[in-house]
Specification:
single chain, alpha+beta, Ribosomal Protein S5, domain 2, 6-stranded mixed beta sheet, 4-stranded antiparallel beta sheet, 11 helices, 43% helix, 20% strand, globular, binds 2-acetamido-2-deoxy-1-O-phosphono-alpha-D-galactopyranose
Length: 416
């Protein structure tokens, strides 16, 4: 069956592909599309799960789900990518997870959460296509969770505003085993075109900031995949445990010494009470080396986020770049979530003329983000090919290697 365009409007290539495959697969046309973008975090890494502010933007790469409501409670979904087998399950609270790392878990996650919270019972047939590089720190997983979450809320009549939706999806994604923060789901649903967003947590808020017209954030993929189900998930959760433990020890010491009167509620509260310098000084005195490093990263990264936002407001590209470098160093040395390839790529970016560069996302592989001005983009890209991709024999023809990130709008439902 040929898939026609009932709306007679411009369609994105992803919408066309998912619609066509849907029609072939199910013999009818989809009734809706849910689209949800990936994101790139400009600064503020590994601190969202401590309820500290972060500064990401949604990007033009998206997950696109063509779907049609079913009469029963089953979800049947396939991916345009042949590597991913079809997933089918019934929506009930407590859906049995697929094997660790299986893409179906990112479909089951929102279904399970919405079944528990809102007793949803209506499923859909769907076809997914995405051009977000997978396992690269650009939140292809949260985009999928959000797209499925949007589809399910829509067809079950669950009405959620942007921020509550993001909170529910953040809880949902923990079904997959990563004890993540809420940054990815929030920016993927709440991003604005041309803007980055300062996101705060508990309660979740978003403040949108126009990215200066001449600034260009370039995303460069190291080519090393980050499989969130394996090693990376273990280390990610371990870093969270370590930095929580560090906070407990420092808080108890501050209590004993009468510097604070009651238990603090988290890093944010501690930072407000003690300030950066005293908090770090005290931590150095009472923590063993590794825990101290974890603590120092969290505190200094939180301070960098605030400074970076001020610098963007002033259009200070060099200052913002310098903070990106400092963030990378902290992630490499103190938080130990970088990799040989990411470190090399950051050096190449700087040598190519970028104002600053850092790993983005959880780390362990995946992508680097760098900042440059519009008129230097070609020179920087040329330097990247010469310094990183060329020597490794990696193709730069593919749109998966590097691209200029466009600050983009958050997820939405399109009804035909
Ligand atoms: P990615 O890059 O998608 O693995 C993860 C977490 C974020 C945040 C970053 C590090 C999830 C879904 N995402 O992102 O919440 O903690 O790491 O800043 O767990």
């Amino acid at each position: 069956m040929n898939w026609t365009n009932p709306r007679q409007v411009d369609r994105s290539p992803l919408e066309l592909v998912s619609g066509e495959v849907f029609a072939k697969e199910f013999g009818v046309q989809p009734t809706h599309f849910a689209r949800a973008p990936g994101r790139v975090n400009l600064i503020g890494e590994h601190i969202d799960y401590h309820d500290l502010p972060v500064f990401p933007m949604a990007i033009q790469r998206e997950a696109y789900l063509a779907f049609r409501c079913r009469d029963d409670g089953f979800v049947r979904i396939r991916s345009v990518c042949e590597d991913f087998e079809e997933v089918e399950f019934e929506i009930v609270p407590g859906i049995t997870a697929s094997s660790p790392g299986h893409w179906g878990n990112y479909v089951k996650a929102p279904a399970d959460e919405l079944a528990r919270r809102f007793a949803i019972s209506r499923g859909f047939d769907g076809v997914l296509v995405s051009d977000i590089p997978i396992a690269a720190g650009l939140s292809s997983s949260s985009a999928l969770v959000n797209a499925v979450g949007l589809a399910l809320t829509h067809i079950n009549g669950v009405v959620l505003e942007t921020l509550p939706f993001a909170d529910v999806m953040a809880d949902a994604e923990r079904y997959t085993g990563t004890r993540g923060g809420g940054m990815d789901q929030a920016i993927s649903i709440g991003g604005h075109a041309h803007h980055a967003a300062q996101i705060e947590f508990s309660p979740l808020t978003m403040s949108h900031m126009l990215v200066p017209e001449r600034w260009r954030f370039i995303i460069a993929n190291s080519g090393v995949r980050v499989e969130k189900s394996g090693y990376a998930m273990g280390v990610y959760n371990a870093r969270r445990d370590e930095s929580e433990q560090a906070l407990r020890i420092v808080t108890n010491t501050a209590l004993d010494r009468g510097l604070i009167r009651s238990q603090v509620t988290g890093y944010k509260n501690l930072l407000e009470i003690l300030g950066e310098d005293i908090a770090i000084e005290m931590a150095e005195a009472v923590l063993e080396r590794t825990l101290f490093q974890r603590f120092r990263h969290v505190i200094t990264e939180a301070v960098r986020v605030g400074t970076a936002i001020d610098l963007m407001a002033r259009g200070d590209v060099q200052g913002f770049g310098w903070l990106m470098d400092a963030s990378h160093k902290s992630l490499r040395v103190d938080y130990e979530v970088s990799s040989v390839e990411l470190d090399e790529l950051v050096v190449v970016c700087r040598e190519a003329g970028a104002a600053g560069a850092r790993l983005t996302g959880a780390g362990f592989g995946g992508c680097v983000i760098m900042l440059t001005e519009q008129d230097k983009v070609d020179v920087v890209l040329e330097g990247l090919s010469r310094g990183y991709y060329g020597p490794r024999g990696m193709s730069t023809d593919t749109d998966q290697s590097h691209f200029v990130a466009r600050p983009s709008a958050g997820a939405s439902i399109i009804t035909l």
